[in-house]
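Try this one yourself first.
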């Protein structure tokens, strides 16, 4: 991560050249994109619980709280908080069903991100596997250089998966029924297309628009090709969540691909853009997310509340 903090210094050095108006427009599109994704998830939840009230602002608060924590905690830890909060908003909801709604919510994303990655690989802008070890600030160096902590993280996730499997086996019939309940909207294809795909497609357009204005803000040619390359890099960075928000991965890949695509742009400018966009989105997501946590829980100590619910749940099962 040392290289990442060096990149932050490059960003600070270029602050005077940043277009703050363009940066504001980029954040506006980012905010609208989140709203679209919340509408899509709410529609999935409403289909899973047709008899329950699914409040928009409750779902919105849960969603942005999860994003805020994920931006600061590695391994997408915010998803657990997102499920915990939305469970309090939807009466009669269960974690197996809510967890499966997140899978439905990411289905279209996987298709679009896969298509963008395939395009980037086809046109030859992404590095090959042989070039990855030579890239700066790539955070998968971390597990290679720190095998013991990386193994510990892997063991923790393995234990969680085993425990979930054991719970699923013990309560197989009820468990799988609840899991299937989260996919209920898929049984109504027109509703799925209208209530989920359409909103998520709008979200991707808004995400691309946000990237366009971030490029403008940092003085990098805001072409369709560059927008797609940034989206491809963001998709790759989510595959290696060893650092919060993929910090490090994005910076290394963005410098590589944009330098290859825009040979006339200084590497320091590209580095300033990659770090500046990351810092701006992280700060915005964290501010919005923790504001939502405070409003919904009346405290910022969400870990304590989450742990207390687990203890109470274990006591009730006894």
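Now uncover the answer:
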């Amino acid at each position: 991560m040392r290289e990442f903090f060096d990149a932050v210094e490059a960003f600070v050095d270029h602050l005077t050249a940043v277009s703050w108006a363009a940066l504001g427009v980029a954040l506006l599109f980012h905010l609208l994109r989140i709203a679209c994704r919340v509408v899509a998830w709410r529609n999935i939840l409403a289909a899973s619980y047709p008899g329950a009230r699914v409040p928009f602002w409750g779902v919105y608060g849960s969603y942005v709280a999860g994003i805020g924590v994920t931006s600061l905690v590695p391994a997408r830890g915010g998803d657990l908080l997102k499920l915990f909060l939305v469970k309090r908003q939807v009466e009669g909801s269960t974690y197996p069903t809510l967890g499966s709604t997140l899978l439905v919510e990411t289905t279209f994303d996987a298709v679009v991100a896969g298509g963008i990655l395939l395009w980037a690989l086809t046109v030859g802008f992404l590095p090959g596997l042989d070039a990855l070890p030579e890239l700066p600030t790539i955070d998968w160096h971390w597990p290679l250089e720190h095998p013991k902590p990386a193994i510990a993280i892997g063991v923790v996730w393995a234990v969680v998966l085993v425990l979930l499997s054991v719970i699923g086996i013990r309560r197989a019939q009820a468990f799988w029924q609840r899991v299937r309940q989260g996919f209920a909207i898929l049984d109504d294809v027109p509703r799925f297309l209208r209530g989920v795909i359409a909103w998520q497609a709008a979200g991707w357009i808004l995400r691309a628009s946000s990237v366009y204005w971030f490029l403008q803000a940092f003085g990098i040619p805001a072409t369709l090709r560059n927008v797609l390359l940034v989206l491809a890099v963001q998709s790759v960075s989510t595959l290696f969540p060893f650092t919060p928000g993929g910090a490090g991965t994005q910076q290394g890949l963005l410098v590589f691909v944009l330098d290859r695509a825009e040979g006339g742009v200084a590497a320091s400018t590209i580095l300033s853009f990659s770090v500046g966009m990351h810092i701006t989105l992280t700060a915005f997501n964290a501010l919005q997310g923790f504001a939502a946590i405070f409003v919904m829980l009346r405290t910022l100590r969400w870990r304590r509340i989450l742990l207390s619910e687990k203890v109470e749940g274990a006591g009730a099962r006894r």
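Discussion: The radius of gyration is 21 Å. Confidence is low (pLDDT under 50) at residues 314-318.
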